[in-house]
Amino acid sequence: MAALVRTQLAAGRGKVTVHRILATLSSALGDAVRHHRLAGNPARPTAIPRPAATERHIWTPGEATQFLHYCHTADPLFADLVEVLIGTGLRKGEALGLHWEEVHLDQHALYVRWTLSAIDNRKLILTTPKTRSSKAWVALSPRVETVLRNRAHDTIQPLRGYVFHQPDGQPLHPEYVLNHFHALAAKAAVSRTTVHDLRHLTATISITGGVPLTIVSKTLRHSTLSTTANIYSHLTAQAARQAVDCIDHTLSSSAPPSPDPDRQGRPRPPDDHIPQSHNQLTAINPAPHSPTSPPPQQEDQKTATTAQRDNKKAASAFLRKRPPTCENAGRDDRI
Q1: Rounded to a whole number, what is the largest CA-CA distance in the chain?
Q2: How many Å apart are CA 70 and CA 186, to the nearest integer?
Q3: Residue 14 reports pLDDT greater than 80
Q4: Which of 62, 115, 248, 253 could form a disulfide linkage to 93, CB 3.0–4.6 angstroms apart?
């Protein structure tokens, strides 16, 4: 495994690519062990440390404008590709695999159906996008529509095949696109970035411009909204601060409501206009007793004792008057 890592790094592959190769190989060998085709997984003891994420350098809108201005003069056809990448948020492979059949200018949208990639930087293949959401439609702005219309007008052959291609109609090689992009960026005197980071530029401009995160996630075609939130959490935090600052500014700049002049100096209504519910509340609360009268609690206890005595007398009188019957004669009435 160590020799494999050295060979892959010597071939020019990056640490992230080598990490994915080892992870895929370990998964395949693990399946072989579970199906009893191998006694053990030789890749399991190998430590596969995940490479540390490098800090992305995203162009500012000014740098993007400066690059496009130079590129439209130096290489107009390549400028069209960059315009589409920034204006739609497509991945590099998705833009290079785009066919005219998937571009619907009348619907102001395009559909992602293919991804162009290179095997060992030589053989080009077309594959379907990795997730179902990646195959969704992408809205087109008037600027991107103009770029595509001009490109379609300049195309001699019928509108089929690749949108971005070589003079012979073959697709552009991903490695050529990357190298040519870096060369044009150096000549345009802008900072160095990657083609994939143009996708992050699209998201950065959208989020800082106030576009809801759900719409940004739909434009980038992330599988979940949490993916977008995790990648651009620093931008959402800035938007959250802007939101509370907006609330603070609105409340601080708003004047307190002026008093109603119709309610000032209004005479108090007479007692006969007091609502009935208010009179009922007043009747429930009796006036305080005088020092010479007994407290209210003692009066209530005295009244209850008198009522019990009267009830006992009435019950005794009723039993004395009750005639005996055949059913209850000589019978104990207790249950």
Answers
A1: 126
A2: 11
A3: no
A4: 115
- Give the pLDDT confidence score for residue 279 in this predicted structure: 46
pLDDT in tens, 232-248: 876 666 666 776 777 77
Structural domains of the chain sorted by starting position, each given as residue range(s) with its CATH number in brackets: 1-51 (no CATH), 61-195 (1.10.443.10)
Helix 2-10 crosses helix 15-34 at what angle (to 10 degrees)? 140
The secondary structure of 47-85 as a DSSP string is: --PPPPPPPP-PPPHHHHHHHHHHHHHH-HHHHHHHHHH
Coil/strand/helix, residue 162: strand
Long-range contacts of 58-63 (CB under 8 A, 24+ apart): 58/193, 58/197, 58/200, 58/201, 58/204, 59/190, 59/191, 59/193, 59/197, 59/198, 59/201, 61/205, 63/190, 63/191
Q: Which residue has the higher pLDDT, 270 or 66?
A: 66
Summarised one tens digit per residue, pLDDT across range 94-138 is 999 999 999 999 999 999 999 999 987 778 999 987 666 666 889
Return the bridge partners of 138, or none.
Answer: 110
- What token pair was written down for 83? 């315009």
- What is the pTM assigned to this prediction? 0.62
% helix, strand, coil for the chain, step of 5: 55, 5, 40
Query: Residue 206 pLDDT more than 60?
Result: yes
Whether 186 and 124 have beta carbons less than 8 Å apart is answered as no
User: How is residue 44 annotated by DSSP?
Assistant: S
**Whole-angstrom Cα distance, residue 205 to residue 65?**
13
Enumerate residues 6+ apart whose C-beta is below 8 A from 172. 81, 96, 162, 164, 165, 166
Q: What is the pLDDT of residue 333?
A: 41
Q: How far apart are CA 211 and CA 139, in angstroms?
A: 14
- The confidence score (pLDDT) of residue 181 equals 97
